[in-house]
Amino acid sequence: MSELRTWLNQNSTLVYFLFAQAVALVGGGAWGLQYMVTLETRVAILETRGASYTISRLDKIDERLTVLEQQIKNNHTSIDRIVDVLTKELGRSPSTIPKP
Predict the structure, then answer these.
(1) CA 27 to chain centre
(2) Given this model, what pLDDT does residue 85 score?
(3) DSSP characters over the chain
(4) What Cα–Cα distance (Å) separates residue 17 from each residue in 10, 20, 36?
(5) pLDDT, tens digit, 9 for 90 and up, residues 67-76
(6) What CA–CA distances, in Å, run from 83 to 19, 78, 90?
(7) pTM of the prediction?
C-alpha cells in the first residue's frame, strides 16, 4: 500500500491528467448521447405532426389550384365568346353594326 502511495505522489500529475481526460470523455459521451436523443425526438415529432401539417397544406394548395383552374376556364370561355362576337362582326359593314 505504501508503494502505491509513493507511486501516486511521484506521478500525481499523470493521475490528475488521466482523471481529467476520463471526465472529459464521459462528459463528451453524455453530451453526444443527449444530442442524439434530442435529434431523435425532433425527428419523431416531425414525423407525427409534420405529416398531418403537410397533408393539410397540400389540401389547401389543391383547393387554390382548383379555384384557379375554374377561373382560367371561365376566362377562356369569355375570351372565346368575345373573339366569336368580334370575328362575326368583321364580315359586316360598319353601318350595319348596332351602336351601344
Answers:
(1) 33
(2) 83
(3) -HHHHHHHHHTHHHHHHHHHHHHHHHHHHHHHHHHHHHHHHHHHHHHHHHHHHHHHHHHHHHHHHHHHHHHHHHHHHHHHHHHHHHHHHHTS-GGGSPP-
(4) 14, 5, 28
(5) 999 999 999 9
(6) 89, 9, 11
(7) 0.44
* Residue 63's pLDDT band (cuts 50, 70, 90): very high
- Burial tier of 70 (Cβ tally within 10 Å: 0-12, 13-18, 19+): exposed
| Overall average pLDDT of the 27-32 stretch | 96
Task: Evaluate whether 97 touches 89 at the Cβ level (below 8 Å).
Answer: yes
Average pLDDT, integer, range 70-94 = 83
Which cell is 37 given? 436523443
Query: Are the C-beta atoms of residues 15 and 8 closer than 8 Å to each other?
Result: yes
In the block, residue with C-alpha cell 502511495: 5
